[in-house]
Amino acid sequence: MNVKEDMLKKKKEINEKTEIFIFVFLAFILLTTWAMTQPFNSGPDEQMRYYVADYIYKHHGALPGGDDPAVRNKVWGISYAYYPVVSYMVSALFMRISRLFADPGYSMFKIARMADVLFVTGAVYFVVKASGKLFPKEKYSREVRWLFAALAGFMPQAIFMGTYVNTDSLALLAAAMILYAWASYLREDWTWKNCIFLAVGMAVCALSYYNAYGWILCSFFFFCFTVLLCREEAFSQRVRFLFSRGAVIAAITLVLCGWWFIRNAVLYNGDFLGRKSCAECAEKYAQNDYRPSLYPTPAKLGWNWKDIILYQDPGWYHNWILTVCVSFIGTFGQMEIYMPYTVSKLYMLFFAVGIISVFFVKETFDLRKKMYVAQRKAVGNDRWKIKTKVISREWNKEGIFHLMMVFLIMIPVFLFLYYVYYSDNQPQGRYLMPALYPLMYFVTLGWNNILTKTVKNEKVRSLIYRVLTVLLVISPFACWAIFNLDLKRNKGTAA
Fold first, then answer.
1. In this structure, are residues 470 and 147 in contact, taking their beta carbons and an 8 Å threshold?
2. Which has the closest alpha carbon to 395: 241, 249, 224, 245?
3. Which residues, 6 or more positions from 315, have their beta carbon under 8 angstroms from its beta carbon?
4. Residues 195-251: tens digit of each pLDDT
């Protein structure tokens, strides 16, 4: 009997590994195909970003200064060398390796894109791994796990980010790594392995894109809250645990990413983020209409948020708020190739229903553990069954996790709104991409609640999950086909 159980267990593990491999491999194939078939500068600011990778490649690993004319854009007067460049360093490494094998005439930008292909492929892998811990088989069906993996891993816009040179793709990888570390804690506690992995994820995040820094901030609070509130030992032991493992997490993070901020501080007179220096560079070198002091932001124009939300630029298909929503789901090229609006509306409806349903899931946001005790009481000749809710003194780590996930949605939203109002009104949903994983987690949680309560037949419910998962995985493949069709149509028109 034990032998049979062991064999069945091993078979399940093999099947699970095979499913994960197929899922991730599909993402890799789509990303590679898309990256290799689209022309140069097919993503937002790809040309400016590629300048940095190309500089590192041609200068044998040397990093450019932010105001270096070789990487500076003539219109905006700035370069992406002010921002973390690790993504471009990996692109440059691929470009250098490719010279050993590729034809010298081969388009180097396609080689550079392979860094982003691998970043998003890695993100899909960690999302799948995290899904098994976020939706454990003891509580959820395995189909729920794959629904979340499809939602988070195969969002068309997220896939598109892995097909051109940028740093958003590295931010997605970092977020997926941190999510996996959090999910591992929920099932295994803060083991040394999980602490070290969290530190690596935070370091990668710090070296990716500033709009993803909410993951670093929330990781700090999540670690501190769960250690101080959710562990069972005496408070003094919790404090020792917090400082000992927290110090290791901080040390690893700083060792891996600190060099970049020290370099900035040295180059830019203490400006370790480079933001102030970037603005000064723009003021000095940008064309007149694009200087920060003259650029017409909503704040300078005196717009209120109603004006912004309802505004529709002549080049947009929708008003501001809808443009943000549909581009979060998937808008391609230089944000001018739209998915069919019907498809976007179906996505938005699916998200909205799932999010609303979350608020009907018991104990989702409870910070204290709760128990329901059934009692029987006699009232006259009748005996009544009464269910009593007892609130425990113990803190609920799942509740803390959910609260942090809410903040992970709110932080990118606030950063984006601040940027729109005071810097540049660009209604690009990609700026909200750090909120993708927590948002899709709640959408999955909500739909699990709906289907569990409304579809009692397990086989039918399983079929619904599988159909939804397949459609979500197919969706970015269809988007790639639409993208290519649009490119061919534009070429034909130009000819």
1. no
2. 224
3. 336
4. 999 999 999 999 999 999 999 999 999 999 999 999 989 999 999 999 999 999 999
